[in-house]
Amino acid sequence: EAQVTQNPRYLITVTGKKLTVTCSQNMNHEYMSWYRQDPGLGLRQIYYSMNVEVTDKGDVPEGYKVSRKEKRNFPLILESPSPNQTSLYFCASSVTGGGWGTEAFFGQGTRLTVV
Amino acid sequence: DAKTTQPNSMESNEEEPVHLPCNHSTISGTDYIHWYRQLPSQGPEYVIHGLTSNVNNRMASLAIAEDRKSSTLILHRATLRDAAVYYCILRGILYGSSNTGKLIFGQGTTLQVKP
């Protein structure tokens, strides 16, 4: 089954304690990205990757890091989480990022609370 | 980034057709029109996309105006499981542009389906 898998689904952590949210896709997609969803602000792109070893900042990259060492994995790293990073996070992948008919597949989301 | 405008909410009765409108008057010639939906507590889910011609798939139909400045997502027989937030999104070309491949989610249309 084609899918994007995120882990964990729920996480409560303390300020400053480094954490990683994993994302894996089984569709051999080149393009992967991370979004955060906040009430009243909708979904906003954090980082994206057009292919292995190619990553770039989205609209809200501050406080986050990513890596793309393998095509299937795109982890989101919070080196020193702060309460303003409390949010619902989604990983997404698609064949490419271009507009020519590429549907995006989203993970089930990770609800992160930083206290 | 080209913007879309959708009604905040709509209601439908179960088993009846639903027409969800979207205005995108600043659409460019290379923008594809994508529709996603987000069910409660889930990640966004691809519904349908198109460029100029009307499109049908197992989930819905997409009717695109001749000038491409508006489109309508049609659910032929609404079910209770179709209750969700529906997003109309423009996705442009990637390479050779400043586009990051991100999906720009507005506030969407919250669809309520009454039994």
Helix-residue proportion of chain B: under 10%
Rg of chain A: 13 Å
Number of strands of chain B: 9
Within the largest sheet of chain B, what's the order of strands?
1-9-8-3-4
Spans of chain B of at least 5 consecutive residues whose pLDDT stays below 50 are: none
- Profile the largest sheet of chain B: 5 strands, mixed
Query: How would the global form of chain A be characterised?
Result: globular
Biggest sheet statistics of chain A: 7 strands, mixed
Query: Cα-atom Rg of chain B, whole angstroms?
Result: 14 Å
Total helical segments of chain B: 0
Class based on secondary structure composition and strand pairing of chain B: mainly beta
Number of strands of chain A: 11
Largest interface: A-B, 29 and 28 residues
Low-confidence stretches of chain A: none
Question: How far apart lie the N and C ends of chain A?
Answer: 36 Å
Shape of chain B: globular
First CA to last CA of chain B: what distance? Answer: 38 Å
The number of helices of chain A is 0
Structure description:
- The complex is a heterodimer of chains A (115) and B (115).
- Chain A is an all-beta fold.
- Chain A is built from no helices and 11 strands.
- In chain A, the strands form 2 sheets. In chain A, strands 2, 4, 5, 6, 9, 10 and 11 form a 7-stranded mixed sheet that branches.
- Chain B has a 5-stranded mixed sheet with strand order 1-9-8-3-4, with no helix packed on it. A 4-stranded antiparallel sheet of chain B has the order 2-7-6-5, with no helix packed on it.
- Chain B has no helices and 9 strands.
- The A-B interface holds A 4, 31, 33, 35, 42-43, 45, 48, 50, 56, 58-59, 90, 92, 94, 96-109 and B 30-32, 34, 36, 41-46, 49, 51, 90-95, 99-103, 105-108.
